[in-house]
Design a protein that fits this description.
Blueprint (H helix, E strand, L loop, with lengths): L1 H31 L4 E5 L2 E8 L2 E16 L2 E14 L2 E15 L2 E14 L5 E11 L4 E10 L4 E4 L3 E4 L10 E4 L1 E5 L4 E13 L5 E12 L5 E11 L2 E13 L4 E14 L3 E11 L4 E5 L3 E4 L2 E4 L2 E5 L4 E5 L2 E3 L6
Length: about 325
């Protein structure tokens, strides 16, 4: 009988041992699956809380994301931190830097204090001290920008301050505008809404420009003003629907300013009109084409082409037609 009791006692000990080592740890593992877990993804530690099988808020540090379209990079994003839910809504970002690609080359870089990214559309918004830079040296400062992955456009509906790259003739174009549109695919930057600009030139001269809008290229120094363009340069006032700033590719200098679509020019003693006008800044001459006409002291001069040399001190006319006011002897 004593032996039988000993067997029963030993059996109970074995049962308890199995319960503690096998069954109870398995129960703990199932509990841990419903509480906070830690994992590593792309070298960044994430803290994930699961409730009812659904992901809740996630926080990450040192974020690096890459988005591609049709096998090519669309953008590459860096942020100090991110907070949101994977696959749901928008991620909130801090200290954001985004590289926008065109044919696997960086075209524009945007930085800002804060941002959001839609986890489905991949659209991006950046706010706070936003700076957009083109690869050829244009810098745009705006309160905010938004980026559409579908259209590949960077938009800012607020005031824009632009600084262009400097050249051998002086500092780059400085511009103010009301809104900005940047096409990543075309590498074009358009500023609209009461644009004012200043471009220093040589010998202390400068262009002061007002227009309805301006367009710049991320590939070259090409710059265009459109709408009602009004310029002041070296004592002259120039008006026309469109003006283009042309740079010398070899000398890295502002070479000419072309005004198209019907031009009006005036200074202290002359008034001129033509279909187009070109200011050759290197040769210091102004060329009027397309029914050009110059009126000075009530005398009218016209021809097929009128050229002002030495900054307007000399005049050369092709096939001249003159109308001189007769004076009493």
């Amino acid at each position: 009988m004593a032996k039988f009791k000993n067997y029963i006692f030993i059996a109970l000990l074995v049962f308890l041992f199995v319960e503690v080592l096998i069954i109870f740890p398995a129960h703990l593992e199932r509990q841990e699956e419903t509480t906070t877990t830690k994992k590593k993804q792309n070298g960044v530690a994430e803290s994930i809380e699961e409730t009812g099988g659904k992901a809740a808020e996630q926080k990450m540090g040192g974020v690096h994301l890459v988005e591609s379209q049709s096998g090519q990079r669309d953008w590459e994003l860096f942020a100090k931190s991110a907070e949101g839910s994977e696959g749901l809504g928008a991620w909130k970002l801090t200290k954001v830097r985004v590289l926008f690609y065109n044919r696997e080359k960086v075209e524009f870089t945007v930085t800002g204090d804060k941002g959001t990214i839609d986890s489905k559309s991949k659209d991006i918004e950046i706010t706070g001290n936003v700076i957009t830079k083109s690869e050829n040296g244009y810098t745009f400062r705006t309160p905010s920008i938004s980026y559409s992955s579908k259209t590949r456009l960077i938009l800012s509906p607020e005031q824009v301050l632009m600084q262009g790259p400097s050249d051998k003739s002086g500092a780059g174009i400085y511009l103010k505008g009301s809104k900005m549109t940047v096409s990543v695919d075309q590498s074009k930057m358009k500023i609209e809404g009461t644009v004012t600009a200043k471009k220093p030139a040589e010998n202390g001269k400068s262009f002061d420009v007002q227009a309805d809008g301006a367009e710049f290229s991320g590939k070259s120094r090409e710059a265009k003003f459109f709408g009602r363009v009004r310029m002041a340069y070296d004592g002259m006032k120039i008006e026309g629907p469109e003006a283009a700033f042309i740079y010398s590719k070899s000398a890295d200098v502002l070479q000419a300013v072309n005004v198209l679509g019907g031009v009006k020019v005036s200074d202290v003693d002359k008034f001129a009109t033509s279909e187009s006008m070109s200011l050759d800044l290197i040769a210091d001459k102004y060329i009027f084409k397309g029914r050009p006409k110059v009126i000075q002291n009530n005398d009218e001069l016209s021809g097929e082409e009128i050229i002002f040399l030495d900054g307007g001190k000399k005049v050369k006319v092709e096939r001249v037609r003159a109308k001189v006011e007769k004076k009493d002897e």
